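WARN retry 2 of 3 for item q-0093 after timeout on previous attempt; input resubmitted unchanged.
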Amino acid sequence: MKLLNTIRRSYSTHLPKNALTFSNRQTLTTTESSICEPTLYFNDDTAECHVSMYPYYVKNGILRQEDKELNDVVKRFDNVCYYTGPERELYSSFVLLNFYKILESPDKLTSANLKKASMLAWCYEMVGTAFLLEDDIMDNTEMRWKKKCYHRQKKIGLTALTDTKLLYMSAFKVLRKYFSDNPFYGQLINLLSETIFITSLGQSADVNTNLEFKKTKNLKTFSYKKYNSIAKCKTGFILYKGPPLAAMYLAQINNKKCLHYFSEVCDKFAIYRQAQDDVWDVYGDFNLYGKLGNDISNGKCTWLIVTAMHHASEHQLKLLQKHYGQENTDSQNIVRQVYKDIDVLSKFSEYKYKLIDELTKDITNISVKPLRELCYRHVEQYIDIDEQFLNYTEQNEIKEQSV
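OK item q-0093 returned
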């Protein structure tokens, strides 16, 4: 949460300087050369420096021309960019930036190169944003980032799908502008395409599993094996596989062997990150996480339901079988009561600390010292933290009030 609070603080304090507000979004009040010096990327101002590059991504993410016939399209692109970003965790950004800083030669960590790394990180963030917007539409989500989901804005609705296409393609346009002279430009293009493809597989697997459960109402549709497979594709590649490889190409390194021992650790990071998000969906404080979850009513394959199935009695399994995936409040409360009786929050805590022990051992096997240190840092910043979940009673009260 410390990192997230830093990002939120830097975001809110940096808005007036970089025209990220709706009233001034088309006027950039600073130049790229004056935003930040390279030393700032090595201390607590990393988030602020990265956020400060966002207006330039938006500016270059779409074709801006004198042809007034496309002005409405440009304005709409600006609208979706400034409505959705960048106040969120920025996971993929910091994975990429941290990797780049440890892989690049010290003499090449110039202001210009660090800013390019930031732009590359924004490419992955905007692709991630597009996936989140699609998920919100399919899951009928109401709130994200402490405000209405983008598609729930007046006169947006399903037309938000056209905006997701622009977000996807903006990443390739920015890549062309900033990296076409990089010897690994082809690899960067292919990697971003692969990231979208693999994440789409995970998204499709998630949707298909959900549809299968709604059709059959069979809890056996869910399993740890199925869940892990979805998490590795839907969450793992875009957060923990694509960004490190992109950082390697940016540093003009083509040695994938240095990521060999990192791969298994990445998969565990991904599964935990998805499990964490699942717990936030049900027990996360809206004031902290900015989202109202609906995984229970939607009948999603989540870490919570799979864990509950694993520990449930025969009677509890029957209750879950009957009530999971139902939209009525009574059924949802019954599911939450089963979660409470099983004490899924304690199970999540047990999982987290067991995972930390496993990762500590796995990370020692990574021979490249900088990668090893980066993994330890990730555990410290994202896993070994004090989760501020609501208790069972608080969550039930909030759900009842929201109906």
